[in-house]
Design brief:
384 residues, Rossmann fold, five-stranded parallel β-sheet, four-stranded parallel β-sheet, 17% strand, elongated
Amino acid sequence: MKKKITILLSYIIFFFNTNLFANEHNQILKIGLLAPLSGEYKELGNSILYSLQLALDEINDEKVFIVPKDSGFNDDKKLIESIEDLKSQDIKIIIGPISKNNFRELKKYNEMVFISPSNIDPKFTNNIISIGISLESQLIALKKFIKKQKKRKTVIMFPNNDYAPLIEENLKKMDFQNAKIFKYSSNPEVLTGEIEILTNYSQRKKNLELRKKMFEDKEDAQSIKQLEKLEQLYTLGGVNFDSLIIIDFGNNLKSVLTSLVYTDVNQNEILFTTINQWFDESIFYENTIKNLYYPSIDYKEFKKYNENYFKKFGTYPNEITILTYDALGLIYYAWKTNDKINSINDFMFKNKIKGKIGTFSFKDRKVIQELDIYKTDKNKFIKF
């Protein structure tokens, strides 16, 4: 399979460049691609290249061409060489790079526009537009959802790591009323103790033991019945919040959910939300939280994209590639709308743009995705 994919990749690159040179004197849209096509992250780069082939097939316009360049990953020297090569071919619009760490080098090329799948900052920055699913877009969706559910005491949880300042910066923009910030350790052994404090677990445990003692020595039917009910509980008394936003991923998220269940947080009363999980099915096998809500891209389009990708290339795409797929569609829309792309201002659309991941809006020089709310329920992703 790997040999087949390598041959196919070589064909795609050849196809891109052959058609480019054959049409260089026509009015065409030449789009550069900066991706790691070699080295440790070459599979990601190849997956991005395949996604753009799918987008080209759907656009079906012979005047649109991709010029791929290997920019490596966090390799400034290779990145600059690739940009200079694209610049020499008079290419002004670029998809990539994928990492925000490379952005400082892009500012030197004011005559070029870079569309990156990075999700760190949704603001237009000089000549860079990031179209990744930003935390700001997700928090906007969650804020609306929590308000609609009439929850008024929210705890916003996130790990105390290198990304904490970025999360805090985003939260300041949101103005969550009556929200409490709770930073926790990424160490699972420390985490449980911290969540015990958050949920007042020890006191609630004592409350239960004290209440049980009130009925233990009584033999009347009502007392026996009350004691039987108490024996079914782990704690007594509620927590001082009615909703949670957990800003975390993967195993860390699962550790947090497990600790919340261990401390007996009532799932029927407390709304559990998190950020975009890219429809990670491994969450199904965590027998902890029955209903977990989160903002996300359009599930049907995501599933359809994966199926089309597999049908054409015999493998499944990296999640980030659906963003580069949409990036090409966005560039094409700007080109057709303005008959040109000269600067970042050509992407200041008044209308909303529909893409595979959902709907974009471009307001105040910022990209915001209008995300839907999904929940996990009985091993399915359900749009709420």
